[in-house]
Amino acid sequence: MPDAPLRIAVIGCGAVARRYYAPALRALECEGVLHVRALCDPDVRGTAELCAIFPAATVAQDAAAIAAPAIDLAIVASPPRCHAEQTIAALRAGVAVLCEKPMATTVADGEAMVSAARDTGRVLAVGFYRRFLPAAQAIGELLRSGRLGALRRFHCAEGGDFRWPARSPDFFRRGAGGGVLADVGVHTLDLLGWWLGEPEHVDYEDDAMGGVEANCRIHLTYPDGVIGEVRLSRDTVQPNRYVFECADGWLRWHVHDADRVELGLGDVDAGFRAQIHRVARDGSHPALGAPRGGFEESFVAQIRNVVDAAGGRAPLVVSAADGLASLRAIDACRSRRALMSMPWLGGTELARARQLGGVA
Amino acid sequence: MIRVAVIGANGFIGSRAVEMLHLEGLADVRPVVRSVSRLARAARFDLDWRVADARDRAALAAALTGCDVVVHAVAGDRDTILGTLSPLYEAAQAAGVRRLVYLSSAAVHGQDPDPGTDERSALSARQPLPYNALKVRAERALLDLRERGDVEVVIVRPGVVYGPRSRWTAAFADDLLAGVAYLVDGGAGICNGVYVDNLVRAIHLAFAPPAADKEAFLVGDAEQYTWADLYRPIAAALGVDLDAVASVAYEEQRVDWWDHFQAARQTSAARSVLSLFPMRLRAAAYAAVDAWRANGRAAPDRWGAPAARAPRATREMALLQRCRYKLPSAKAARVLGYRPSVAFDEACRRSVGWLEFVGYPIRTSSGDDRRRDCAPAGAALREAAGERS
Questions:
Q1: Closest residue of B to A208, CA-based?
Q2: How far is A248 from A13, CA to CA, in rounded Å?
Q3: What sign has the CA pseudo-torsion A15, A19, A23, A25?
Q4: How far is it, in rounded angstroms, from Cα B85 to Cα B211?
Q5: Residue A242: what are its φ and ψ, rounded to 5°?
Q6: What are phi and psi of A280, to 5 degrees?
Q7: Average per-residue pLDDT in chain A?
Q8: Contact A345, A209 (CB under 8 A)
Q9: Which residues are within 8 A (CB) of B313 and not within 5 positions of it... i.e. 6 or more apart?
């Protein structure tokens, strides 16, 4: 007998819920995997769009109303400063949680969330959907397997003019998860941790001058001599690509290509732009199978994994421990913080910028 | 300290105004942006930023409460240029703001002004480019509002504003990297440029003098320089010989449908439709139209031999780069006490510094890419240029 559809609550009905979670939940609802039963947002007007997609869902303003047995899994997609409180309350009410990134605004909050999941025995997953992108999975496999030789260096540059339809000014508030590092960098740091492990040393600089950074740069050094740079921006157009240079080849990934990578082999003057498919058989020969899917499928896969994990049918792909590791990586950056060089500032400005930025 | 609201605080000039006025301690700055998502640059500082659309009188009045001066630094299409004046003026009046400083443009005199042109020269709404006429209409509308209202109006007319985040600086670098840069007549025309810091200096000086009310001020750099002078440091920084950049001879052209097409791109409706397409596709669409126009027929079959075709200057660039007259800043000097604080050479150095900050492949004097481990430099930036949306 098939499992009954999991009963879902969406806590926080802003842009990420509308743009990404709603279509994925709708797809899984059509498959009979889950059923969206509750929508929760302090601003009830914000739930209107989701109500139209999930007309059977009840609407609540207070996340405290989310509890078992009416709800099995809560998707916490509220502003980051709300994540810890809402997640812990849901876990204690017997509800599994998929918490959007960043998992929390502090490491201490992240640790409390991990403890709550352990104490309650409920599943706590973190929304790093990029781990479900076929390209990210292929890069991880290629780098970890060493098929391109030892990694020597990498460069990741991501961002541009900020266009996310944010409703909450928390994206721009200190201590509320604001700034490009916690918003976008948390994805990059998660992927790098997943692909490469922990760096040996981190240097970090940004352009916050009393507020939150719009630009930052991270230099990472790994035990085997690998060096890398991450450049993030909400201000200026970046190439939006990751490049990995190995002893026997290279990889480039455009972050908006869910299922494509570029690669080259050794000194061969031929590069390949590859779309990622499953591998099939053509008689006795290998052949391309179905494409591995794009962004939408990755969100679907993420939720499906959490549903399966909540039902005890599969291990979590992105655990609370992974979410906590990304918070620690952000902390490691901030502990080494320096002011970015901004060569257009005059002398008086630079002195004031250093003062406001809290750096020597 | 004087409290100043900057409307359009996320824009190129607005963001530098916020940054410079705040970091130099010249004003208590209140950045105002049209939506939460436009806060990225202003939120680098711990400032009392506000969200208010420049067409929303009530929201603007609330945002301007307690401010002495408001700076209108909103850029945009025709609807934005003309549609934000009355709401902002009335909001400023309701909030008790003393003075409005409006960022107009030296383009009200045309891109190629006659020798002797200054602020006393008659303005015409019949202009070679629609933007110029819109700015003329905007100035007149604001002065009409001033006649009926209490909020003082000062109009600042900068020329080509370059520097960090300027399209003039970034676009030329992008074009160089993409191999499509050009100069008109070798770039020998006079560039009526103003480094963004010098403009912000003028804006600041416009806050106080009583005699500045109802007046317009041309603002430029101290030095006279050509377009080649402006572009050479950027080319050098990217390792490109400016002398090898294509030089396009200027030919007088009638205003034809191409220019109307360019003007139509500036309407909000067209922009909203075009914005749905990735930049590369838009660029391809424009290139196809350009090719069709140049050849008088459809673009050649891709299997055919490519037709050699020289780059074609936009009408704006053609007019700008044939300029033979440096607009004066004498009135700004006399009434506002304006003195450009950043010399041209230093302005160019800072502009190149910003390109490096962004990630452009700036080269050292030895010819090496200065970045430590950015292998895919040029290609990545070309890609970035194509992805701008």
A1: B44
A2: 47
A3: negative
A4: 22
A5: -110, 135
A6: -120, -175
A7: 94
A8: no
A9: B182, B184, B248, B250, B321
Residue A47's pLDDT band (boundaries 50, 70, 90)?
confident
Strand partners, A214: none
Cβ contact B384–A245 (<8 Å):
no
B387 and A162 in contact by Cβ < 8 A?
no
A182-201 confidence digits (pLDDT tens): 999 999 999 999 999 999 99
- What phi, psi does B293 have (nearest 5°)? -65, -45
CB < 8 Å to B19, chain A:
345, 349
Determine contact, residues B77/B267, Cβ cutoff 8 Å. yes
Tokens of A152: 């020597």
The tens digit of pLDDT for each residue in B131-145 reads: 999 999 999 999 999
Please report the DSSP string for A4-65 in residue order: PPEEEEEE--SHHIIIIIHHHHHHHHHTTSEEEEEEE-SSGGGGHHHHHH-TT-EEES-GGG
Pairing of strands A6-11, A73-76: parallel
Give B314 or A336, the one with higher predicted confidence.
Answer: A336
Q: What is the mean pLDDT of chain B?
A: 84
The residue that leads in pLDDT, B270 or B23, is B23
Confidence band, pLDDT 50/70/90 cuts, at residue B234: very high
- Kindly report the pTM of this predicted structure: 0.88
Residue B40 and residue B222: Cα distance in Å, rounded?
32
Per-residue pLDDT at B284: 41
Neighbours of A302 (CB within 10 A): 25
Q: Which residue of B has its CA nearest to A220?
A: B373
Amino acid present at B103: L
| B1 at A interface, C-beta within 8 A | no
* A217 pLDDT tier (thresholds 50, 70, 90): very high
- From first CA to last CA, the distance across chain A in angstroms is 66
How is residue A356 written in tokens?
A: 């406001």
Q: How many other β-carbons are positioned within 10 Å of the β-carbon of residue A201? A: 12
Give the 3-state secondary structure percentages of chain A, helix then strand then coil, rounded to 5.
40, 30, 35
Enumerate the residues of chain B whose CB falls inside 8 A of the CB of residue A172. 36, 39-40, 43, 49
Specify the amino acid at residue A297: E
- pLDDT tier at B227, thresholds 50, 70, 90: very high
How many percent of chain A have pLDDT more than 90?
84
d(CA B39, CA B22): 16
What single DSSP character describes residue B150? S
Task: Read off the pLDDT of each residue in A280-288 and give the average, rounded to a whole number.
Answer: 95
Radius of gyration from C-alpha coordinates of chain B: 21
Instruction: Tell whether the model's pLDDT for residue B114 goes beyond 70.
Output: yes
Q: What CA–CA distance (Å, rounded) separates A71 from A90?
A: 9
* B163 and chain A in contact, CB less than 8 A: yes
A229 CB neighbour count, 10 Å cutoff:
18
